[in-house]
Amino acid sequence: MAPSSNSRSAGAVLTVEQMAAAEHAAMVSGVSEWELMQRAGEGAARWVARMSGGRTVSVLCGPGNNGGDGYVIADFLYRSGIPVSVVAPKPPATDTAKKARETCVAPISSDGFPAAEVYVDCLFGYGLSRQVEGAFATLLEHLRDTTGYKIAIDVPSSIASDTGENLGPSLYYDLTIALGAWKRAHFIMPAMAGMGVKRLVDIGLDIAEDAPVLSAAPQIEPPAPDSHKYRRGLLAVVAGEMPGAPLLAAEAAMRSGAGYVKLLSEHSHPDAPAELVVEGGDLAATLSDERIAAVLVGPGLGRDAKARGKLSAALDAGKPILFDADALHLLDPALIEGGDTSQLAVTPHEGELAQLCAAFSIEGESKIERARALHEKTGITVLAKGPDSILVGSKGVRFFNRGPSWLSAAGTGDVLAGIAASRIAVHGDPQRALEEAVWLHSEAAHIAGPAFTAGELARTVNQALECFL
Ligand SMILES: NC(=O)C1=CN([C@@H]2O[C@H](COP(=O)(O)OP(=O)(O)OC[C@H]3O[C@@H](n4cnc5c(N)ncnc54)[C@H](O)[C@@H]3O)[C@@H](O)[C@H]2O)[C@@H](O)CC1
Ligand SMILES: [K+]
């Protein structure tokens, strides 16, 4: 029953089409759908058994193979001595689910909603294709209103796997057990917020290595023993009209690994910390310093002709650049034409991503499609940030788990930009830097506790670094 050891499904985040193709490939290679369902059902049942701790379990089964998994789970639990029953408003519609029901020794009823302490939702998986109605909707409403421990198998039964769209009664689960591979909905808001803890059951699928994946925690290298401030990375933060945002970014950057952070500004900054070097003068001349390893431009920049001139000077310097905030409203095809875009990165939120897509004539139905199209058209590494961040670069697509919701505060985007730019200055790899930045930002928020300010968050990043050394 155990999947083969050369399974390559770990971390992949698939569409329904990719999932069906992976399962089809397994069947072509000689693994039957029944065998896959056994692996999925038994793997999920082991989690359910562990979480139920002897409490009564009710399994809700739908007509497709998600329901089939439900019968396998119920059968496994029953044979393990756990008190379990099944509710299935309709009989199975697939041969494999029929076989699972015929094999299941747990008691099965077609109506009612049994009182239980643990509920396992197997009404619909990635085959959900329309609004949930009738008896299935009634079951989900009961499930929503009960106080029991709720487990979704593969995906919550009213959530569309590719888009995260809600197609029925909306409810919160304590645990969601993905089967074979993650689906996009597992990392799309607001669907992700209703899934509770997420776990993945490997069923031995062989998945293309370039498939999008869930980001794994980075390993951050401490400075080499012979490091000095320039070798550790000199970051230039280009300031503009508003002083606060670049200062926040610089505060975070100083605590994210760069050996030296300079604020390039024509204003005086009496509030700047003593460790931050503030440098005026001609921007193009200053940026020509070959010791500068990376440039951050955008926070507090402004959006007028002068700001555009600064953007242009930064691009002419030919360094790795991170563009954020106002810079994302100024970037266009003419500005980047002829440059090496592989060393450029952007960190747009939803609105800024829409702005970039308009500027670069890009269409896409979802955030991932827009981010991917922007990267493919420009070569720029794109972190579409938010509670459901998606990173697209030359190494492919990375999804992330949700960070603390306390991050929804003014200035936290400037902190993220500072961290990411600092990491670029350290090693020069924009995709790796952005991935590290998402983790550091999120971990810093955990450390900072509730209701932190952006400044407090920026001053916590060095503590977050310690978690990844
Ligand atoms: N195909 C495979 O090889 C495997 C599939 N597995 C399971 O199979 C699931 C996918 O199975 P299916 O493709 O059969 O799909 P589902 O079980 O998700 O449900 C699809 C069935 O429900 C019907 N349906 C869709 N939306 C409906 C709605 N709103 N109201 C009423 N009926 C609706 C469809 O017509 C179809 O009969 C996965 O999520 C996973 O749980 C696992 O057993 C692993 C192996
Ligand atoms: K389900």
Automatic annotation (TrEMBL):
Co-factor binding details: Binds 1 potassium ion per subunit.
Q: Which molecular-function annotation in GO is an example for this chain?
A: NAD(P)HX epimerase activity
Question: Record's Gene3D superfamilies?
Answer: 3.40.1190.20, YjeF N-terminal domain
What is catalysed by this protein? (6S)-NADHX + ADP = AMP + phosphate + NADH + H(+); (6R)-NADPHX = (6S)-NADPHX; (6R)-NADHX = (6S)-NADHX; (6S)-NADPHX + ADP = AMP + phosphate + NADPH + H(+)
Summarize where (6S)-NADPHX binds, as residue positions.
65-69, 125-131, 154, 245, 300, 349, 414
Please describe the quaternary structure of this protein: Homotetramer.
Keyword hit for Zinc: no
Q: What is this protein called?
A: Bifunctional NAD(P)H-hydrate repair enzyme
The question of whether Metal-binding is a record keyword is answered with yes
Q: Which organism is it from?
A: Qipengyuania gelatinilytica
- State the EC number(s): 4.2.1.136, 5.1.99.6
Matches recorded under InterPro entries: Carbohydrate_kinase_pred_CS (IPR017953), CARKD (IPR000631), Nnr (IPR030677), Ribokinase-like (IPR029056), YjeF_N_dom (IPR004443), YjeF_N_dom_sf (IPR036652)
Q: Residue limits of the YjeF N-terminal domain?
A: 19-211
Residues that hold K(+) according to the record: 66, 121, 157
The record places domain YjeF C-terminal at 212-468
Q: Which cofactor does it need?
A: K(+); Mg(2+)
Pfam family of this protein, just one? Answer: Carb_kinase
Question: What are the entry keywords?
Answer: ATP-binding, Isomerase, Lyase, Metal-binding, Multifunctional enzyme, NAD, NADP, Nucleotide-binding, Potassium
Protein family according to the UniProt entry: In the C-terminal section; belongs to the NnrD/CARKD family. In the N-terminal section; belongs to the NnrE/AIBP family.
